[in-house]
């Protein structure tokens, strides 16, 4: 039974890190006319209302996007605030955009989007939010969808893997899943988000990922204070295979501006 719901965390500092890098990569990859595939294994609901009791209860968005964009965590011409601004213009100033919605703001009509979400309510909300943007929304396990669609058509593209890590076995399974996906889709940009936890639960997974020696591997991490007392997440990480040219510089700029 899945209990994680991203509405409690949408717009937190980890989202800012993940979404800023995602928007940068997609903006870079869409500079060429050639179509691309965007796949997400753990999509969430796509659109989050920050004025709901769930979002207000944790205050995570206020500590994240609310404060960080104003403080200039990315430059004014970075694609992340532009994409978020377009979502807010369409859906209201109180929304926060999930990764599929941000991607939809950057992708073009020739691009293809496949999103997996397993939680029944999150899936239904995702389908309603993303179908108008031409996304194909799958109610199934994200890795099952990814393995069955790879290599996707078009072959150029990016996959975001953003699990909730509710099931601790996920940490152990992910390196093997990514290796298999890379074997099937050797040109794909495969990005994994992971939490940096006080318990260091993510560390063996990262060692295993790095030991695989996948091409163009890039790891980028930022740290932050726990969003509330006792919260175990103290940072956010992104591990990319076939990282696009320039991502290391874009990530370094984010680090330099990180509060
Ligand atoms: N990527 C989203 C974003 O940045 O806006 C947030 C996704 S949230 C961290 C993880 C999502 O994965 C949750 O909505 C959860 O219901 C979903 N999920 C959990 N296990 C899954 C699985 N095996 N397959 C697909 N989705 C799953």
Count of alpha/pi helices: 10
CATH superfamily: Vaccinia Virus protein VP39
Name the hetero compounds present. Answer: S-adenosylmethionine
The secondary-structure class comes to alpha/beta
Q: Per the principal axes of the C-alpha atoms, what is the gross shape?
A: globular
Q: How many domains make up the 3D coordinates?
A: 1
Classified by CATH, the class is: Alpha Beta
Mean pLDDT: 96
CA distance, first residue to last residue: 37 Å
CATH fold-level topology: Rossmann fold
The share of residues in extended strands comes to 15-25%
Report low-confidence residues grouped into runs of 5 or more. none
The largest sheet has its strands arranged as 5-4-1-6-7-9-8
Taking the sheet with the most strands, its summary is: 7 strands, mixed
CATH architecture label name: 3-Layer(aba) Sandwich
Rg (C-alpha, Å): 17 Å
The percent range for helix content is 40-55%
Instruction: Give the ordered list of helices and strands.
Output: HEEHHHEHEHEHEHEHEEH
Number of strands: 9
Indicate the topology.
Elements (H helix, E strand, L loop, with lengths): L12 H17 L7 E4 L6 E3 L3 H6 L1 H11 L8 H13 L3 E3 L1 H8 L5 E5 L3 H11 L5 E3 L3 H8 L7 E5 L7 H16 L4 E9 L5 H9 L6 E6 L9 E9 L5 H11 L2
Parallel strand pairs: 1-4, 1-6, 4-5, 6-7
Antiparallel strand pairs: 2-3, 7-9, 8-9
Helix pairs in contact: 1-3, 1-4, 1-5, 1-10, 4-5, 8-9
This protein binds S-adenosylmethionine.
The site of S-adenosylmethionine has 19 residues, from α1.
Description:
The protein has a 7-stranded mixed β-sheet with strand order 5-4-1-6-7-9-8, sandwiched between helices. Strands 2-3 form a two-stranded antiparallel ribbon. The chain has one domain (6-257): Rossmann fold. It has helices at residues 13-29, 53-58, 60-70, 79-91, 99-106, 120-130, 142-149, 169-184, 203-211, 247-257; strands spanning 37-40, 47-49, 95-97, 112-116, 136-138, 157-161, 189-197, 218-223, 233-241. It has 259 residues and is an alpha/beta fold. Helix content is 42%, strand content 18%. The longest helix has 17 residues, at 13-29. The model has no long low-confidence stretch (mean pLDDT 96). The site of S-adenosylmethionine (SAM) has 19 residues, from helix 1.
């Amino acid at each position: 039974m899945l209990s994680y719901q991203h509405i409690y965390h949408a717009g937190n500092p980890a989202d800012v890190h993940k979404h800023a890098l995602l928007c940068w990569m997609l903006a870079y990859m869409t500079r060429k006319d050639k179509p691309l595939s965007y796949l997400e294994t753990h999509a969430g609901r796509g659109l989050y209302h920050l004025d709901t009791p769930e979002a207000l209860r944790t205050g995570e968005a206020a500590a994240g996007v609310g404060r960080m964009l104003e403080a200039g965590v990315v430059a004014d011409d970075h694609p992340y605030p532009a994409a978020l601004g377009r979502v807010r213009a369409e859906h209201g100033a109180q929304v926060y955009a999930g990764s599929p919605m941000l991607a939809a703001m950057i992708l073009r009509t020739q691009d293809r989007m496949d999103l997996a979400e397993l939680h029944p309510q999150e899936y239904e909300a995702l389908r309603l939010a993303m179908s108008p943007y031409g996304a194909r929304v799958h109610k199934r396990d994200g890795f099952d969808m990814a393995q069955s669609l790879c290599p996707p058509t078009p072959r150029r593209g990016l996959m975001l893997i953003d699990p909730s890590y509710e099931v601790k076995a996920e940490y152990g399974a992910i390196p093997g899943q990514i290796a298999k996906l890379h074997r099937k889709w050797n040109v794909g940009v495969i990005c994994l988000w992971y939490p940096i936890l006080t318990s260091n639960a993510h560390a063996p997974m990262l060692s295993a990922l790095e030991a695989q020696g996948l091409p163009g591997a890039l790891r980028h991490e930022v740290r932050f204070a726990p969003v509330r007392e006792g919260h175990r997440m103290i940072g956010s990480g992104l591990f990319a295979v076939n990282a696009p040219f320039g991502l290391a510089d874009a990530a370094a700029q984010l680090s330099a501006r990180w509060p």
